[in-house]
Amino acid sequence: MRLKKLFRYFLFIILFLVSIIFLLDFYISQKTSSSIYYDYQDLPHTPVGVVLGTSKYIKKGGINEFYKNRIDGAIDLYWLGKVDYLLLSGDNSKFNYNEPIMMRRDLLKANIPNSAIVLDYAGFRTLDSIIRANKVFDADNFTIITQEFHCERALFIAQYQGIKAQCFAVPSPNKMKLVRIREFFARISVFLDLFILHKEPKFLGPMIPIINSNQPTLTESEK
């Protein structure tokens, strides 16, 4: 009988935790849905587009579709005049692995001018990328460029920090099961980071405004 009671308590705890995970996931999705755009025509202009980094290649070889679609989306937004500058935020913590540099190379191949590209080498996590865009690069109204599920988490961070942002959701690959499962845990982590641990980016440093009196918004002729 005692074992049965322990099993019931254990089962109850598991069900409770699973319910919390699903409720948190739903809450983040609902809270950020109004700031996510899927159509270029509907997207309002902002001075800065923040491209969230990821690996260009998958472990088995070949191009990572998450990466490709973010880069393609950034290129389209720039040439359509939806953003004037592209802030490339990614990981640069390992030797021979530099997400911002890789992204810049591909943007330059698409004839995006170097003057419209800004690199953030300390975007180790989504939290770092979003907060640094505001506190380091002085972007107070920007467009995040990533997949829908990632948009939701990034916007949740921005909203908590009082940062004005919107997100352009680029297409996601067809195979998303494992990624979606990882996202459940990523959302738990970001909730703990924001509400319990009050985490800040790993690095902040002095402010380097993307747009200032010496660097005006690009005109159409300069693009």
From TrEMBL:
Upper lineage: Bacteria, Pseudomonadati, Pseudomonadota, Gammaproteobacteria, Orbales
Transmembrane segments: 6-28
Cellular localisation: Cell inner membrane
The protein, known as: YdcF family protein
Superkingdom of the source species: Bacteria
Family matches, as InterPro entries: Cell_Envelope_Assoc (IPR051599), DUF218 (IPR003848)
Main location (coarse class): membrane
Keyword tags: Cell inner membrane, Cell membrane, Membrane, Transmembrane, Transmembrane helix
Membrane topology: Single-pass membrane protein
Role played: Participates in the barrier function of the cell envelope.
Pfam family name, one: DUF218
Organism this protein belongs to: Frischella japonica
Residue stretches making up the DUF218 domain: 50-172
PANTHER family assigned: INNER MEMBRANE PROTEIN, PROBABLE PERMEASE (PTHR30336), PROTEIN SANA (PTHR30336:SF0)
